[in-house]
Design goal:
The protein is mostly beta strands and about 50 residues long. Helix content is about 0%, strand content about 60%. It has a four-stranded antiparallel sheet, with no helix packed on it.
């Protein structure tokens, strides 16, 4: 039931990270604050389409 997802920076829209999530228990889009090496700061990263 786990699905691979990509995390894209909200500022520059680059896909910096990837992870997995359980689609049954987490139906909303995944969002986390992570470091973007192109923006050189911590920004929100949201689940992007594959």
């Amino acid at each position: 039931m786990r699905e691979n997802i990509h995390l894209a920076c909200e500022k520059c829209a680059r896909r910096n990270y990837h992870t997995t999530k359980n689609k049954k228990t987490h139906t909303s889009k995944f969002e986390v604050r992570k470091y973007c090496r192109w923006c050189r700061e911590h920004t929100n990263h949201k689940e992007a389409k594959l």
